[in-house]
Amino acid sequence: MVSIIKTDASHRDFVALVDLLDQELAERDGEMHAYYHQFNEISRIKFAIITYKDGIPVGCGALKEFEKDTQEVKRMYVLPEMRGQGIASGILKELEHWAMKQGYKKCILETGKNQPEAIELYKKSGYKIIANYGQYISIENSVCFEKLL
Length: 149
Fold this sequence. Notes:
Elements (H helix, E strand, L loop, with lengths): L1 E6 L4 H18 L3 H5 L9 E7 L2 E12 L2 E9 L8 H15 L4 E7 L3 H9 L3 E3 L11 E7 L1
């Protein structure tokens, strides 16, 4: 059975999943990981989702306000052995609904070119590639997306 809880970034299961995410990203991004890591501090994240399967935390995602009408999707992760089961899509939909309920008009996000499965998830979920924003403007490895809610 799959269940989702809404929490914040201090939840121990969210912290544990983000640690696994950071380990995977360090392998994929190599020397660029240190650059990205500075923008992924979770202490300022107020809106986090954790997905459980049979009581075990298997995935997470979060929202961080970017602008008055825009939330940035952050810290999306699903355990490797649980991928391909629609968990990430479910997390993303819950995050979008949460943002809409708070009155936000769009979500943006950044992912890396070394994460083709993430790029495909966002495309199939209705996100459109946009020009790199903020701290990602000059980063060639970054791919930025936007979705109007």
